[in-house]
């Protein structure tokens, strides 16, 4: 695209732009993100960084829209609770969460739910645990993994987290999750222009 305009760029320049602008664009997008439904699917997927497996926790709603994501070095109760708290703080309480049978995720949801219920006096979150009910999020992981596969891995945890945030941002924009002034279906270019303004 840049070569068509007579501009020569090295791929490392584009990578530096991604690392610099992804967090800023994601922050602006999250302010314009439309509400998600009250039925969530939660799962984690593996990402390789410097030869070590790390974990991308993800949640989508019943429409397939991205609720939240969290990149973590560990796959433990602490990381799962941090992810659940982030999702609850940004999007409120769901009525139901579907998980794939992970006991860690179940415990994290139950503990975060208990903390949240004490503050709000709400009904408990229903947890469905069945690997076959979670096919929606497994298919959604595939779109993220497709982008990562061609990158030959990540060299640092920070670069991985920022790049994954950029990939998730584009993924949300393709799903038309942003609320923009004209409220009609907008192209990626129009959404970027609105975010940059």
TrEMBL record:
Residues 39-176 form the DDE domain. GO terms for biological process: DNA recombination; transposition. The keyword DNA-binding applies. SUPFAM superfamilies: Ribonuclease H-like (SSF53098). Pfam families: DDE_Tnp_IS240. GO terms for molecular function: DNA binding. It comes from the Eukaryota. Involved in the transposition of the insertion sequence. This is DDE domain-containing protein. It comes from Rhynchophorus ferrugineus (Red palm weevil).
């Amino acid at each position: 695209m840049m070569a068509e305009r007579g501009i020569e760029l090295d791929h490392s320049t584009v990578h530096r732009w991604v690392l610099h602008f992804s967090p800023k664009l994601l922050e602006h997008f999250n302010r314009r993100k439309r509400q998600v439904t009250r039925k969530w699917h939660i799962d984690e997927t593996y990402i390789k960084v410097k030869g070590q497996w790390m974990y991308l926790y993800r949640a989508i709603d019943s429409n397939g829209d991205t609720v939240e994501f969290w990149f973590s070095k560990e796959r433990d109760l602490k990381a799962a609770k941090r992810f659940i708290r982030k999702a609850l703080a940004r999007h409120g309480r769901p009525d139901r969460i579907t998980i794939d049978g992970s006991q860690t995720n179940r415990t994290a949801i139950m503990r975060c739910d208990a903390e949240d219920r004490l503050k709000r006096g709400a009904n408990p979150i229903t947890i469905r645990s069945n690997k076959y009910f979670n096919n929606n999020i497994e298919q959604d992981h595939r779109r993220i993994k497709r982008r990562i596969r061609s990158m030959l891995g990540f060299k640092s945890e920070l670069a991985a987290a920022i790049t994954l945030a950029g990939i998730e941002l584009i993924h949300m924009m393709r799903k038309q999750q942003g609320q923009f002034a004209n409220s009609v279906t907008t192209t990626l270019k129009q959404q970027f222009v609105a975010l940059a303004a």
